[in-house]
Amino acid sequence: MITMTQREYSKRPADYRSMIDGKPYLLTLNPATGGTELAPVTIKKNPTLATIKSFIKKNSRLYIKTNSKFDGMVDCIMPTDDNDFSPVLAPDQGYNHENCLGIKGAWFVFGGRDYIYEYSDGRYQGYEISNCCGKFYLAIEVK
Question: Are residues 69 and 85 in the same domain?
Fold first, then answer.
C-alpha cells in the first residue's frame, strides 16, 4: 500500500493512475519481481495553513531553516547561507508582522498561495513552506 497526498497523486502521469471500485491505484515497480503492478493508494490530507497554525500553537520548541528569501536588490528569490535549523524566538521576541505568524524568518502570503508539504529528515519533523517570498522549514526536533 502506498500513502501520499492528493496533490502528489495528481502529479503522477494519468497513465499510471487508476480508479478501481472508487479507490485510487498507482502503477508501481515491484522490486521483488522486477515487474510493474497496480498498488492501492491511501490518500492523506494535504497540509494547509490551518495545519501550520495548529502546529505552531501546539509546539513551544520550534525550529526554523530558511533556504531562500526575497531579495529586493535583484527582485527575485535568492538562496540564503542558513544551512541548519535554529530555534524560533518566542512570539513576543520575534517578528510581529501578521504575515509571519510571530516567527522571525517565516513569511506567509495567504490566499492559498503557500505551498505546504510534510518534512522529515530523521532529526527534525515538520513542514516545508514555499511561496513567492521564499522557502523555509518549520519543525520540531525528533527524539
Answer: yes
pLDDT higher than 70, residue 96: no
Domain count, the chain: 2
- Residue reference for cell 492559498: 112
Give the H/E segment covering residue 7: helix 6-11
Return d(Cα 70, Cα 76) in angstroms, integer: 6
Tell me the HSE value of 51 on the side-chain side, using a 13 A CA sphere: 16
Query: Which residue, among 106, 85, 91, has the nearest Cα to 59 in the 3D structure?
Result: 91
**Backbone φ, ψ for residue 70 (5° rounding):** -70, 135
Residues 69, 86: Cα–Cα separation, whole Å:
16
| Sequence-ordered strand ranges (E) for the chain | 2-5, 17-20, 23-29, 36-44, 63-71, 76-79, 86-87, 115-120, 124-131, 134-141
Q: What does the alpha-carbon distance between residue 109 and residue 68 come to, in Å, rounded to a whole number?
A: 15
Looking at the fold, whether 66 and 134 belong to one and the same domain comes out as yes
Place of cell 492501492: 40
pLDDT in tens, 121-136: 999 999 999 999 999 9
